[in-house]
Amino acid sequence: MKEYNILIVEDSKYMNNVITKIVKDFGYECSSVFDYKSVNDILLDKIFDFVILDLNLPDAFGIDLVSGIMDKTDAKIFILTAEIDIELREALFRKGILDYFIKDKFFVDSISAISHTIQSLKYNNTRTILVIDDSKFICHEVKKVLNARSYNVVSALTAKEGFDILLHEEINTIILDMELPDKHGLEVLREIKKIKKLQNIPVVILSGARDSEIVRNCIKLGSFDFVQKPFNIEEFVLKVTMAVTVNTRDNELNQVRNKLENDLNKTSFVASEYLDAINESNILIHTNEQNVILDVNDRHCDISGYKREKLIGQKISEFIMKDSMTHGIQEIESQLKEFQIFRGMISNVKKDGSIYYTQTSVMPIYDTQGKILEYLWMSTDVTTSVKHASESQEIQRSLLYRIGEIGESRSSETGQHVKRVAKCTKLLAQLCEMESEEVGILYHASPMHDIGKIAIPDQILKKPAKLNADEWKIMMTHSQLGADVFKDSDNQLFKIASSVALTHHEKWDGSGYPQGIRGKDIPIYGRITAIADVFDALSSKRVYKEPWSDEKIKNYFQEHSGTQFDPYLASLFLDNYDSFLEIRDTNKD
Q: Looking at domain 125-258, which of 3.30.70.100, 3.20.20.150, 3.40.50.2300, 3.40.50.10380 is its CATH number?
């Protein structure tokens, strides 16, 4: 990291020393001064890559201070201030600052996060963003803001110019205006998603129209995000950064996949052995786009009882039967059309009329021109697992628990967290004399309380500092996202999982989210899970805090009973506090 030289400008000697220590601990070279005059002097002798600047110095302040420094150096600027001024903050972002930090109790964490920003800039100069907007002013403003973050930015004033660039340059993210002189933005988005080379590039929509129909249509056509003009620079940059991050990950996965394909081509013997292993361990069916069977493997013939020649040329729908647990051919075809892949359970009919169940993946096989050659149906026989309803329910419960673990693992929490929350919800439900069957369902549903975090970007989920307002808005969406995973299910377990995900951040006094409901309007499942989740969160180490003491946790629940928590449930929890501590202590990370 020694290649970066940082200038710290802060008039408080104490704060200057704190910042200098943190910066040096990250391995950066740094110099520090205390006033604007000293800034002018040191910039004559040294070149800096970054400036960490207090916005109020004894001899200069505000936007004039920032402008003066920008006139003297190309260094990128982080702003420090003790005051929140929304208009000034927006103006500074428009001038091209990198970030804006408040000197509050999270100040040290914010300074520590600067290193992450600096390191990410190293890779931004390999990312190219295309702006398609008929306003030269907008193009200029966007370019200025994104160039400050080291992105390469190219612009086009018409749809035709945009497509010329897209087809001849490597673009990582598209910023698309809706009102173009030669074509409406929706039509441009539709055409982008039809071109194989372009369809995976994230598209951030810009629009001055306040039309919910346009927003819905953009989402349906596959846009990544939507920004309303005139836009807030900080929000805009956050959304563009997320889009670029998603594209980068997709490209990295494609590189891995291409490498594997190249390796397989170079080692044909190993590839042949690998395919033989798949053929022996899986049921394989090849169909055309009309779902007519082209071929099957021996394992399929052994299980179904049909000979190969009797199957070839038949519609696969003749051998699939839908029931309450499985997908029918219409659902499979619908998912293939929408997502280009299907995964799910299928009921299959044997020659003797009996049923066997398979866990099946259906995926297209393309030629070198990107045209679908056939569909490969790869299945595993799971008949034994679904013979009895109780076994099926156990699979569902296990799946919920594992998915819950995945959701927690993305936020650097362990599988033990969901296990402890489940056990605590079970105990609290029993203490409030809930029916035993309902207790069991809640026990299996509660691990899904934070499943919506799967959809929250890592840069927000794992940020080692306080989230800003825009990041917190995105974080709060995880409750609704989690609920939406199960919202259309008729299964009682999934219904309660949806309720838990949606309501475990609601508060007794109505100050929670996402709905702001209060009291007994909050379902009992959410009220119970809220206590279990907060108890375990306060007891555990997180990226942003150390674990609290048992006494401090107890005091917290006493203080927030009747405001954050259901007072009756809180009293049950506190009266049986030692039992909850025992659950925690016997299920440590």
A: 3.40.50.2300
463-521 confidence digits (pLDDT tens): 777 888 888 898 899 899 888 877 777 778 888 988 999 999 999 999 999 999 999 99
Provide the token pair at 294: 């082209």
> Is 535 a residue whose pLDDT tops 60?
yes
The CATH code of the domain at 5-122 is: 3.40.50.2300
| Neighbouring C-alpha atoms within 13 Å toward the C-beta of 461 | 19
Do 128 and 154 meet the contact criterion of CB atoms below 8 Å apart? yes
Answer yes or no: CATH 1.10.357.10 is held by domain 389-585.
no
Cα 160-165-171 angle, rounded to 5 deg: 130
pLDDT of residue 390: 43
CATH class of 272-386: alpha beta
Q: Is the pTM of this model over 0.70?
A: no
Query: Which H or E element spans position 283?
Result: strand 283-287
Report, as an integer, the average pLDDT of 63-90: 88
More confident residue, 83 or 300: 300
Supply 358's token pair: 């398979």
Query: 195-200, long-range: CB within 8 Å, 24+ apart, which pairs?
Result: 196/370, 197/167, 198/166, 200/247, 200/250
